[in-house]
Design a protein that fits this description.
Mean pLDDT: 89
Strand content: 15-25%
Number of strands: 11
CATH superfamily of the largest domain: Periplasmic binding protein-like II
Number of domains: 2
Helix content: 40-55%
Shape: globular
Order of helices and strands: HHEHEHEHEEHEHHEHEHEEHHHHEH
Radius of gyration: 21 Å
Largest sheet: 6 strands, mixed
C-alpha cells in the first residue's frame, strides 16, 4: 500500500545515502517501503530490466517494484484504467508518448529531474515528458536454412512466388499497416498519413501466406525458434536474441526497417506513485554501466551519454540507430492511431 509522504524530519543519513545514489534528497523519506508499479513488455525485455534496473533500485532504496505484464498497447492500458477511475500504473517501461500526450495523459518531468537527465543522456533523449529509451525497429528476418531465397525488404516480403516460405508479421495495429503501406508504394520519407484502404488491400494479398501474427516479443522469438515460419517482420531486438542464442544463420535486413521517434520511459498523468517513478528515473539516468548491459542484452539503445564507450562494436552495429531506416513521425502516427486500430481490428477478426 502507498505510504503517506514523510519528508519533514527525514533522517539525515538516509537523505545522504539516497543522494549518493543519484536521487534527490527530497525523495529520501518516500522510498523505503514505497511501491512502484511498472508496466513492461515481458520476455527478455522485462528480464533485462529486472536484472539491471528494478532489482538494483529495490536493493539500494528499499522501494518495491511491481512488474505488471503488458496486456496490449501501453496507452490502451492507461486509458482503460483512467476511464475506470482506477489508475494503478506509475511508470511505462517503454511505449510511445505521442499516443498519450495529445489527451493530457502524461506527467511532465520536474525541472530538476529533466536537467539531471539531460546532463546524463545523449542529446535529444530528454523530451519533457518522455526519456528516450528502448527504441524498437521492425525488421525483415529470414532463416536461410528453411528457404532457397530470403527477402530483404517489403516488396520482396510480398513477393511470395519469388521468395516462397511461411511468414509472420507482428500482430499489432501499427506494424502490419505501415509495412503494407510501404509495400504498396508509399513514400518512405513521408509515410503519414497512411492510405489505410490501400494498406488493407495489400494485407489481403498476403494474408493467405501469413501463418501467425505474433503480438508479444516472446511470441515473435518463438515462431522462429520453433521453425514455425521462415520469414518474419518483427522487432530487431527479438531477432538479435534469436540469432545470438538459437539461429546463428538468421538474416536481419534493415532496408524496410521502421523506427519510432517518441518512445521511452513515461509517467501517466495522476500516477499514484509518481514521485517514486521520478526518483527511479533520476537514479536510472546515472546507471551508465547498467544501461550498457541492458543494451547489450537486447540491442535496443538506452539514453546514456556513455553508451557508445561501454558496448562492443558488434552490439553498436546491431542498434537501430545510424541506419537508413524509415522514421515514424510520432504525432502524425498518433493522429491516425484510432483509425488504424479500428481498421486492423476489423481486418484481423474478419476471415
Amino acid at each position: 500500500m502507498r505510504q503517506q509522504n514523510a519528508r519533514l524530519g527525514a533522517p539525515l543519513v538516509l537523505s545522504l545515502a539516497i543522494a549518493a545514489l543519484g536521487l534527490s534528497a527530497a525523495h529520501a523519506a518516500d522510498l523505503k517501503g514505497r511501491e512502484l508499479n511498472v508496466v513492461s513488455w515481458g520476455g527478455v525485455w522485462t528480464e533485462a530490466s529486472r536484472v539491471n534496473f528494478f532489482e538494483p533500485f529495490e536493493k539500494e532504496t528499499g522501494a518495491k517494484v511491481n512488474i505488471i505484464a503488458a496486456t496490449g498497447d501501453f496507452d490502451a492500458m492507461v486509458r482503460l484504467q483512467v476511464s475506470q477511475g482506477a489508475l494503478q500504473i506509475d511508470l511505462l517501461d517503454g511505449g510511445t508518448a505521442s499516443l498519450l500526450r495529445p489527451d493530457g495523459l502524461l506527467e511532465t518531468f520536474p525541472p530538476e529531474l529533466a536537467a539531471s537527465l539531460e546532463k546524463e543522456s545523449r542529446e535529444g533523449m530528454m523530451r519533457g515528458d518522455v526519456l528516450g529509451y528502448g527504441t524498437t525497429a521492425g525488421v525483415v528476418v529470414c532463416n536461410p536454412d528453411m528457404v532457397a531465397k530470403c527477402p530483404t525488404n517489403a516488396d520482396e516480403f510480398w513477393d511470395v512466388e519469388g521468395y516462397p516460405g511461411s511468414r509472420a508479421i507482428v500482430g499489432s495495429w501499427s506494424y502490419p499497416l505501415q509495412l503494407a503501406a510501404v509495400a504498396a508504394g508509399a513514400d518512405r520519407k513521408n509515410l503519414f498519413p497512411i492510405d489505410i484502404d490501400k494498406a488493407l488491400a495489400k494485407l489481403e494479398e498476403i494474408r493467405p501466406h501469413i501463418k501467425v501474427w505474433p503480438e508479444s516479443g516472446a511470441a515473435q522469438e518463438q515462431v522462429l525458434v520453433d521453425r514455425e515460419v521462415a520469414i518474419a517482420y518483427i522487432w530487431n531486438g527479438r531477432a538479435h536474441v534469436v540469432k545470438r542464442d538459437v539461429l546463428p544463420n538468421l538474416q536481419i535486413h534493415w532496408e524496410s526497417a521502421m523506427l519510432g521517434n517518441d518512445g521511452g520511459w513515461m509517467v501517466p498523468k495522476g500516477a499514484p506513485n509518481a514521485d517514486v517513478a521520478f526518483a527511479f528515473l533520476d537514479w536510472f539516468g546515472r546507471q551508465h554501466e547498467a544501461q550498457a548491459a541492458w543494451t547489450t542484452a537486447l540491442t535496443y539503445p538506452t539514453p546514456s551519454k556513455e553508451l557508445a564507450d561501454r558496448i562492443s562494436p558488434e552490439i553498436a552495429g546491431s542498434l537501430p540507430v545510424g541506419k537508413d531506416v524509415i522514421i515514424l513521425d510520432g504525432p502524425l502516427q498518433a493522429a491516425q492511431a484510432k483509425a488504424m486500430r479500428a481498421a486492423w481490428q476489423k481486418f484481423i477478426t474478419t476471415r
